[in-house]
């Protein structure tokens, strides 16, 4: 049986700890949103940083498509991931992997991914998949600027949709 | 008379007792080959080198220095050899019991290698191919199967004379039980091409030959390549000292080059396709995982067996359509195991009766996918699985390790289903055939029993043809129906054509993951039908015992294997007296 003063102290400590976590990230974590980070570069440092800020993070086991920062330079954005979470996570992801250059909203081409994917940001998708989807390179500075000025999640999705519109096929040189 | 009989009886008893005693005292026959060691081992030397050959037991050592395989007629070693110019030394010993050692080879390169690599500056992928140094090699690579992904299909009994995996609608493009066919999706497949990302063409494009993918020094100056995000072509990964990479690239490929870059990842993932090769093969240390390649075993490079001539490699998987070289790869025809097909080649003399019809692999690869997993089944029609890294769906598939091979006779030729071919049902497996080794128990001399990985898949079929469904559509949408329709459009069929999903299968010969000599499959693996179902592969009697036995005597219940086979082993009766096959190469005759 704990003394009342001790219990009061613990409650205060817990409340302080919870209040230290930004409310948006707490909401994101509690709503089941998550950040998946490919195991390249300093992925564990990025995961720790985001976790500190209250986001649920996971580094999936490596597979043959997880090679290095240059090859894992795509970000798969779940369509339900809130704008505020993207504003918090993507700048840090770009800071940790300066090669990130493909940003794609999963489902933008009509695919219907599993529910969990729609609530997840995957940092470090394979360039092989990006090229197969014929995505276009988006400059990091431009992406950051767009993150800042987008008035809504839908506006950001529209921007990414336009940027990733496949370019006409070029005939190979004969 | 009684005394004489008693004396003879005593003498007979004495003899009967004495013979076993005498036999028990007879020394065990020496069946161990001698081991000869060269000192120093081959390598590069700046000046002449004196080489000593020593043997671990009394024996005579024979050698050659002109690259030919020595025999007992070759020069007998008697004193250290002085090698003053580059030479290949081959040697073996024969002990006093007559045991022959496997021929060993050492190459002594005298003088600094004639390399100008040390001063090279990287200028791009075309630098080697356009230079006077390697333009001929670039042409050789360009015409090889490694580059063209198609080639001479003279070992195929189906399809045109040139076949391969490269996409085509002329009946030459192979199907498989994994991603079915590349059907126009060159880019993702190019990750495993020796070019720099562009599709192979009939004319040589020097800038599209990536010598480094095979020849980079994986230890001292490893090379890796990444896609250019705009062009999709490959370029060196950022941060590499490419000058150093090309300066060190004057070497033959190591396992990491062949397996790490491509061959371990066939089928779309580590270990997925081959069953006996995985990324782990590069670093296996335990000979039990792979006696040839493990660092604690033979530590052999791929080209120790898969030798190259003008960039053409020997060896063809039973499911592959083209051959790069018409030279066959054979364990006993190389310098490695030349004695294994002789009567004294194995410790157990009974093995000699088998080597004519049983491939080495059948006994020496008891299981495959040891230490990793390989794909055993893929179902395109089942709910898809999400791949987070690739942000795409993939077909449901079953992975498994430690698999027991299927056994089948193979004469070295193959049957294959290519895009556009009529689908053929195999009543024996109940599946539509993707590839098959040709051969049967009654095949001609040279046909042998081999171990195979058996792989199934669930694929669409329409108009009597297997459909090369569009994997790109499937990956992005998980919409099997749309992927099938896109595949039908690719094949020139109306997309409204009704289709069904059928079971397909293929056999893929197993050559790697050979186990150490002490782990070989014992006689009981076959002769008690525990591992290999002999009757299932054709060794059953040709008729009931009531018919077979009475050809000579009354009907009998077959006893153990050795006893029943005294008909051929002792009496010399041909196998066809009791079975449906003959073994003329053994000199057997009909009673």
UniProtKB/TrEMBL annotation, chain A:
Annotated signal sequence range: 1-20
Organism phylogeny: Bacteria, Pseudomonadati, Thermodesulfobacteriota, Desulfuromonadia, Geobacterales
Organism expressing this protein natively: Geomonas paludis
UniProt entry keywords in alphabetical sequence: Signal
The protein, known as: Uncharacterized protein
UniProtKB/TrEMBL annotation, chain B:
Gene3D superfamilies per UniProt: Cytochrome C3
Keyword Signal assigned: yes
SUPFAM superfamilies with a match to the protein in the record: Multiheme cytochromes
Top-rank lineage group of the source organism: Bacteria
Signal peptide boundaries: 1-24
Protein name as annotated: Chitobiase/beta-hexosaminidase C-terminal domain-containing protein
Keywords: Signal
Keyword Glycoprotein recorded: no
Segments forming domain GH29D-like beta-sandwich: 40-105
InterPro entries in UniProt: GH29D-like_dom (IPR059177), Multihaem_cyt_sf (IPR036280), Octahem_Cyt_c (IPR024673)
